[in-house]
């Protein structure tokens, strides 16, 4: 459960600027509440507490953003199709900004890879990065995003369109295929999410 020490009125302004609706708190101690991407932010004096299944996107809106980020993602499926999860790591020159993993239901490995890309881009966009350099060991996703390979499956085409819509939010972006060992942490986080499920 992330806790951000901050001025709750500035946090409220950031959420409203991002299009997140604010509602009154449920107790005398709660200043306000907000819901976004499956999570809830609750403001108290001097801090905001995030809870829910995916609090990272809310936390990203509340933190200072901008600049360039390196985004690593992975997807994993056991059974292909089978139980699936995604993992992501977002880095800047100051270190790790965000990392995590979450289950996404049942799907194929390739679709899980796309879901990993989509989730990582959503988090990076919520942080307000202007430039993203995306890296993955999924040659299929990288080459489809770059337009080098076709996406014949309708579900894959839909995810490719969604990923391109997210990428257009950044001033500049690149995507590169890297060896598995350079994407090891995102892979670990996806598999840990599956193990914990």
Automatic annotation (TrEMBL):
<dbReference type="InterPro" id="IPR036397">
    <property type="entry name" value="RNaseH_sf"/>
</dbReference>
<dbReference type="InterPro" id="IPR002156">
    <property type="entry name" value="RNaseH_domain"/>
</dbReference>
<dbReference type="Pfam" id="PF13456">
    <property type="entry name" value="RVT_3"/>
</dbReference>
<dbReference type="GO" id="GO:0004523">
    <property type="term" value="F:RNA-DNA hybrid ribonuclease activity"/>
</dbReference>
<dbReference type="GO" id="GO:0003676">
    <property type="term" value="F:nucleic acid binding"/>
</dbReference>
<dbReference type="InterPro" id="IPR049863">
    <property type="entry name" value="RnhA-like_halobact"/>
</dbReference>
<dbReference type="InterPro" id="IPR012337">
    <property type="entry name" value="RNaseH-like_sf"/>
</dbReference>
<protein>
    <submittedName>
        <fullName>Ribonuclease H</fullName>
    </submittedName>
</protein>
<feature type="domain" description="RNase H type-1">
    <location>
        <begin position="65"/>
        <end position="195"/>
    </location>
</feature>
